[in-house]
Each structure stands twice: as C-alpha cells, then as structure tokens.
Specification:
The protein folds into two domains: 161 residues, 3-Layer(aba) Sandwich (Rossmann fold); 119 residues, N-(1-d-carboxylethyl)-l-norvaline Dehydrogenase, domain 2, CATH 1.10.1040. Helices cover 52% and strands 13% of the residues. It is built from 16 helices and eight strands. Strands 3-2-1-4-5-6-7-8 form an eight-stranded mixed beta sheet, with helices on both faces. Helix 6 links the parallel strand 5 and strand 6. The longest helix is centred in the middle third of the chain and has 29 residues.
C-alpha cells in the first residue's frame, strides 16, 4: 500500500525531503507560498495543493519545514491551516528549527485537535539532505516516534528520540551551536594560514587529515577557499538560530561564550548584505578583520538584506 504524506514548506530542505520520499515511493502532496516550489514538486511526481489544510487532507503524516516557529504556529492554527484539513490521529513531524518552548506549546495545542505533533528537527545541510544524509532528532511521545520511523527513513539515514516535546528543538540548537564553533574555528585558522602565506588548499588537506578533522572541513572548507557562498544554509537563518541559542543559555543559566562571538560575527555578515548567502559567507568578515580585501566574484548575485 502506498503511503501518503503531506509537505508544508518546500524550500531547500523541503525539496530534498520530496526528492528522497519520491524515490521511496511515497505519494506526496505539498504546499508552499512560492509558486515555483509547486512546479518543482510537480516535476518530481508530487501533487501541489493550494493551502496547508489541503496538504493535511487524507494523509497519515505531514512534514512541516518552515522558517520560524511563529510562522509554523500560523500555518498550523490559522484559517486554511493544517488543523482544518487534518483528521484525528494525524502525525505531524515539524522540522522547523524552533524555539523549544514554542514546540511545547504547539504539541499541547494540536493535541486538543487530536493531532500527534513531534518537533522533528534534522541535522545536515540541504546538500546532505538531497543525498538522504540527514539525522532526525525528535521530541514528543515515543509511540508516535515509533509510528513515524518509516517516514523518517524515507528522507534520513538515522532518527533519534530525545524525550518530551521540545527535546528535538533543544537538541538541534545544541548541534547548531557546536557546528557554529567548528565553522568559526576553521575560518579563523584558514585566515591565519592565509596571512602566514600558507597555500590554502594544501593547508585544508592537512587539516582534514589531522587530529582536528571534521565534516565541516570537508563540506565548508572548499567553499571558504573559493569564496563560493551558493546557499546550502543561509546567514539569515544562522542569525536567527544564534539568537535562539543565546535565549536558551539565558533561560537555563548556561555559559554561552563562543555563541556570543558567533552571533556578533553572523550579525555583521548579515548587515553587509549576505543574508541570503551560505552560512560560511562570514569568512569574508574575518578576512576583512585581518586586513584582507573582499574577493571579487563573491557578490555576483545582488547582496540585499532580507526583510
């Protein structure tokens, strides 16, 4: 029997979900505010619909991939929202990187409508997502997590249950915090190497083979060297995430030394107009701080701060 799944939010990550779910023979119906995304879904054999409510109709599971938890709340609960099309017992896997307290609130509100909500964050870039190389970290009820394993396996390589609602969102922020530290350390080291006259490709090769090696060096090191900021993630999203991390640190009384520095660097990168560029566009800010000029070619696409 073909399993039916709804998708709301078909951006970079949502398109990757669709790509892999299609290969896994799921029936997909999806909604996005951008008409181009509907065309992309149609090209992959899916069925575009006109509202979030329609995306939730007659499916067993719905996957949401939205920019913020405020937008997610509106998509779920507003007129023509998911609750208007959802049947009792619908499983919702919300992959939005959200404020954990908002995920807890949505869990409770949707439970009143008989909807089984999980904050089902994913770890990985959009390029990794296209390859199915994602990890799901979920919060909610464990029985719902077990019921959704087939859906998770349709677009990821592993899924972990982290605890009650909000646990997936909190885990995602911890992952992103550590990832930010990896990227910041790599960028700082690469700029130092450039100032010291080391050949960057050779330096990166040594770093990738040394004790400090990380996936970041493989995925993002070449982008830093080339000044290739075609988006796999986005500066504006990294800035939003950094603020969520700092908020959790304040709420829980946990030191956030590196995260404060990271947030300021990402803010500066955003203010320079790199909001729509890949997360490692902050490398140009560090190069500028080192007295190195912004490289030609990186701003071929208009650099405009998003709304």
């Amino acid at each position: 029997m073909v399993k039916r799944v709804g998708i709301v939010g078909m951006g970079l990550m949502g398109q990757a979900f669709i790509h892999n779910l299609s290969k896994s023979q799921f029936f997909i119906q999806g909604f996005d505010v951008d008409p181009k995304r509907a065309d992309q879904l149609r090209q992959q054999g899916g069925h575009p619909v006109d509202t979030p409510a329609a995306a939730a109709k007659d499916v067993d599971c719905l996957i949401a991939s939205l920019p913020t938890s405020n937008i997610a709340r509106e998509v779920f609960l507003s007129s023509n929202g998911i609750i208007e099309g959802a049947a009792q017992g619908l499983y919702v896997c919300d992959t939005t990187t959200a404020r954990p307290e908002d995920s807890e609130s949505l869990f409770s509100d949707l439970a009143e409508h008989g909807i089984r909500y999980m904050d089902s964050c994913v770890s990985g870039t959009s390029t990794m997502a296209q390859e199915g190389d994602l990890v799901v970290i979920a919060g909610g009820n464990q029985e719902d997590f077990e019921a959704c394993k087939d859906y998770f396996s349709g677009f990821s390589r592993a899924a972990y249950f982290m605890g009650p609602a909000g646990s997936g969102a909190r885990t995602k922020l911890v992952i992103n915090l550590i990832l930010a530290g990896n990227r910041l350390a790599l960028a700082e080291g690469m700029v130092l190497g450039e100032k010291a006259g080391l050949e960057p490709n050779n330096l990166l090769k040594v770093l990738q083979d040394g004790a400090c090696s990380s996936k970041t060096m493989i995925d993002k090191g070449p982008k830093m060297i080339k000044g290739d900021y075609s988006k796999e993630g986005q500066i504006k999203v990294s800035l939003k995430d950094s603020r969520l991390m700092l908020e959790q640190g304040q709420l829980l009384g946990s030191p956030m030394l590196m995260t404060n520095i990271w947030s300021q660097i990402v803010q500066a990168t955003y203010e320079k107009g790199y909001g729509e560029k890949d997360t490692v566009a902050f490398y140009e800010v560090l190069r500028g701080m080192a007295g190195l000029s912004e490289r030609p070619g990186i701003d071929d696409v208009s650099l405009v701060k998003p709304e």
